[in-house]
Amino acid sequence: MKRILEKAVKWLLTASGFVTSVVILLIIGFLFTEGAGLFREPVVEEGYVLVLNKENPVSAMTAAEIKAVFDEDVVNWKDLGGPDMAIETFRLEDVDEYFSAEELGPQYENAGGAIAGLVESRPGMVAFVPGSMIPEDAGVKLAEDRNISPGEVFGGREWFPTATPAPLFGILPLLAGTVWVSLFAIIFALPFGISIAVYMSEVASEKVRGFLKPVIELLNGIPSVVYGFFGLIVIVPMLQQVFGLPVGESGLAGSIVLAIMALPTIVTVAEDAMRNCPRTLREASLALGATKWQTIYKVVIPSSMSGIASGVVLGIGRAVGETMAVLMVTGNAAVIPSSILEPLRTIPATIAAELGEAPAGGAHYQSLFLLGVILFFITFLINMCVEYISARNRAKNS
Amino acid sequence: MEKIEAKDVNFYYGDFQALKHISMSIPQNKVVAFIGPSGCGKSTFLRLFNRMNDLVPGARLDGEILIDSRNIYAPGIQVDELRKEVGMVFQRPNPFPKSIFENVAYGLKVNGVRDKEFIAHRVEEALKGAALWNEVKDKLNASAFALSGGQQQRLCIARAMAVSPSVLLMDEPASALDPISTAKIEELICEMRDQVTIVIVTHNMQQASRVSDKTAFFYMGEMVEYDDTKVIFTNPHKEATQNYITGRFG
């Protein structure tokens, strides 16, 4: 009876471990397939085509070029490798300017032919219309049907997923925003974190430590939206005044909030590492005539370096993945920041802010999953670092 | 000449009195062994000589301990200066997670020695003095953890001797080592007695009789008997000592 029970428990444990692993793998697989779907999406909005005059040698345009053309930033075909000819753009909304209601027919049934004729007669025109409207035998050509390329996504400097006719999915601004905010957060958190850890493990009396440690660990339990709120109410106006900014929401505000949030992790892990520094090592150092501070910076800190480093890396991990607080205080402008005082936007904040408005299955939706994949890789890399550092630590202490 | 003198020392961990009315004097350049059963206070007493017990919260001392006729517990005594004079070797080898060279050079560096040549010279001397030089001279930059336990303990002796202390305290220095390494440590103790006064705590009575000039027997926080080693091991005056060295208790 006992044996059967033990076997059952063993199988139960195995099964739970197995199921958990499978679920995690499924989530990752889902993330990856959805994310990779972006590269199967056409550059222009699904179902729409770009109609060009037959004599126009330009037959393919990148998403960025299409956006520039329709925003009238580019007004001549020669900029796109074509002849010296002015660009005329045509959107479906413009149809009333060119044709009367009679010409289009009561149900707009003639609109396709009329637009095709218009483009045929004007060599510099490009029209953005639903593909089904254009008759098969019309004397026009359609711009090449291309998919979004990885180069446009990973090298793109503009994130504009709701642009028509061609949305832009350049992730560089988001990546830059994430890196900037995390980097500055760590720069702020590191000196404070290490100092607090040294103070708590080496200087503070047991009484002070018994008070400080729970307080700092309590910081870990505060929901991030509360930090965001605090940042919005306190830090943002403060920065606006101190630096005379037009808006206080900036990368700096985000990094300060993140630094506060990363502190408990850094302090707790680093302090544990320092307290775990063997007493015999401290005694050896003191017995050689070293002072307390010499012992701290020559023996305690070096010998717990890997513990301190993993605390820092874990702190970075938290900073990189943090969503809500950052979303609330960074201003969310998807541009590559030229200074930390400008608004910027991070990858997690983008996912949180845009997933609600992205139609399921569309390019925008899939691009957000791709961001998720990128975030996954970043945190995965960070976790690998922690793993590596602590493995080295174990090897050293054995 | 007396190197260390204890005058009516009482020592307390909180309410517990660990040492009771101990007075003794340790002559210069001799080896003195402290023996006694576990918990008898011999390590505690040893650690008073370099004020290592200062680190224990709630510890308190009555009485005086003089080294070179100076009360080391008097106000105004620099503890780090004292510890430079009074080196210590611990029960388990405790090298720093640094290179062999850095381990031995550490004491000099924290005491403000900057002269690289002098440091290199002292490191070599100390390693030779600890009979370790030939084994490590080609790998001074290797981690100290790469050495065997016995080598690590000799490295710790070299580390303590590098700052040229006049007293060396050894707290069961061979208890974690194999017999061959133990023999080497004992040999070292005999060689070093010209340079330093050595106080050694040991559980191993043969070791005490082999290396020491004088032996003190501790029991329950009291020093029962203190005499020449020969006397203690052949003709002790107290019955407790007799019982302990013949193995009837302890």
Structural overview:
The complex is a heterodimer of chains A (about 400) and B (about 250). Helices cover about 60% and strands about 5% of the residues of chain A. Chain A is mainly alpha-helical. In chain A, the strands form two sheets. In chain A, strands 2-3-1-4 form a four-stranded mixed sheet. A two-stranded antiparallel ribbon of chain A has the order 5-6. The mean pLDDT of chain A is about 85. Chain B is an alpha/beta fold. In chain B, about 35% of the residues lie in helices and about 25% in strands. Chain B is built from ten helices and ten strands. Chain B has helices at about 40-50, 80-85, 100-110, 115-130, 135, 150-160, 180-190, 205-210, 230-235, 240-245, and strands spanning about 1-15, 15-25, 30-35, 60-65, 70, 85-90, 165-170, 195-200, 215-220, 220-230. A six-stranded mixed sheet of chain B has the order 6-7-8-3-9-10, sandwiched between helices. In chain B, helix 3 packs parallel to helix 6 (about 150-160) and helix 4 (about 115-130) packs across helix 6. The interface of A and B includes residues 284 and 294 of A.
SSE ordering of chain A? HEHEHHHEEHEEHHHHHHHHHH
The rough form of chain A would be described as elongated
The first-level CATH class name of chain B? Alpha Beta
Largest beta-sheet characterization of chain A: 4 strands, mixed
CATH superfamily of chain B: P-loop containing nucleotide triphosphate hydrolases
Number of domains of chain B: 1
CATH architecture of chain B: 3-Layer(aba) Sandwich
| Run of helices and strands of chain B | EEEHEEHEHHHHEHEHEEHH
**Model regions low in confidence, pLDDT < 50 over at least 5 residues of chain B:** none
